[in-house]
Amino acid sequence: xxxIFGGTNNSTITYxxxxxxxxxxxxFKLKNxxxxxxxxxxxxxxGSKMYCAVTGAKDTKQDSYIEVINIATGKSIKRIPFFDxxxxxxxxxxxxxxxxxxxSGYDGYISKIDTASLAVESRIQVGGALEGLAIVNGxxxxxxxxxxxxxxxxxxxxxVVDLTTxxxxxxxxVGFNSTKIAATANGDLFTVVKGNYADIxxxxxxxxxxxxxxxxxxxxxxxxxxxxxxxxxxxxDYLDPYLKTFDISTGTLNGNFVTDQTAIxxxxxxxxNTLNNDVYVGDAAGYAVTGKFFCFGADGKKxxxxxxxxxxxxxxFNYNYK
Length: 322
Prior knowledge:
The protein is an all-beta fold. It contains one helix and 26 strands.
């Protein structure tokens, strides 16, 4: 999935057939005869469907939605509206738990979608400009970011939601402008805290889902993190956009993930194929019109790459068993 900043209907999906080495650009529009939308932020897989969070534009009404797509065919199953008569919900990121999809929004709400009916069951107000979210130990953890277009006094915490009752429990103070978060299998979480690029430093903060408290922090400036299984990956900020692994016990950064001579100019997102542990890295290529997706083995050596649209950030896998 990719998007272009500042444009209407700027998001696309690229389809790559590994066996045939064939690329299809703007795949969603080809299959549905309509564009994917404006400012797509996330693409996640649950069962046979993929869910795309289309944030929409700040000054355009009723262009926020979740696009639910059949992975095998690329056909839209349902476009779930994320707006009402008063405002757009501005959906950002998606996580799944017990046949429900949970969606963060810049409007400060978490929305719960039933994955069978594809209807929004309920929404609760949680914080400010919500960004990344993670689910562990029956609780949802969501970052409260600092967004110029969506100002909020709650921009220094991670909010915690009890998913059994679907109620907010508390806010955990982590520092100014937290954006991304990921959970480990043992119940720890790491969140990227970006600071203010001046006198408030950026950090990688570790939390415990057992105590719902901050455990530790490392002063480091990151744009992105991913935890899949026992592996952790981080991308450095725009001044130094490295791609490294990190220790998911301590939060300590390790060496570069890529172990061959492959050059990634602007790493933008990471998706791990849990079937074979291949690591897919989106390269924004200096924010050019055309990006690229790389596939690496778990050893950090490139297997293949293919062209995408601008700002490729996440992948979903279509497993075709024969």
